Amino acid sequence: MKTTTDPDIALVEEIAHTSVADCYQCGKCSAGCPQGQKMDRLPSTLIRMVQYGDVVEASRSAAVWQCVSCLTCSARCPKSVDIAGVLDALKQISIRRKTVHANYQRTVAFQKAFLEILRRNGRTNELEMVVLYKTLGFFGDVSTNPLRSIPSALKDAHLGPAMLLKGKLHVKLGGPLKDKALVRRIFKKCEKKVES
Known about the structure:
This protein is mostly helical. Helix content is about 60%, strand content about 0%. The chain contains twelve helices and no strands. The protein has helices at about 5-15, 30, 45-50, 55-60, 65, 70-75, 85-95, 105-120, 125-145, 145-155, 160-165, 180-195. α1 (about 5-15) packs across α7. It is globular and about 55 Å long. The chain starts with 6 loop residues before the first helix and ends with a helix.
């Protein structure tokens, strides 16, 4: 087993604020996981992969995106390893290294659209977010599957008019946010943490 001198293991431990070497594979995390039966790899398997330095392969797993962050695994760990934190670290690494599982590319596109609108406006705007999400999804689909891109981009377009008529889709921007600078400072602080 590799030690934490391995840069990939050290990165996971730094992001998760935990020591994966403490895990002795008792399996309590996997036994208690409410998503365990749906996962391609159980939490204990992912921890073992990280222990052996196979961080890139672990980050490609669908399981890191199926984790609902309920913290059951971390609470059950007799060695206080933050397993949920490790899975979250693997998510971050998969986004950085562009190794996100193919089934979860849309999830990442949605998260990016949401955060970009929040960063820009200080609050969400539904219509702007839908347009950005569909645009990100379209270009993601074009690069991976060009035949799927246009139908996917227009998939929910028929819902727009009905939602607008029922008052479920707000076209106008929200009122001015009192302290947009505060939101920008929060984002800068988070980005600084990620970079360091």
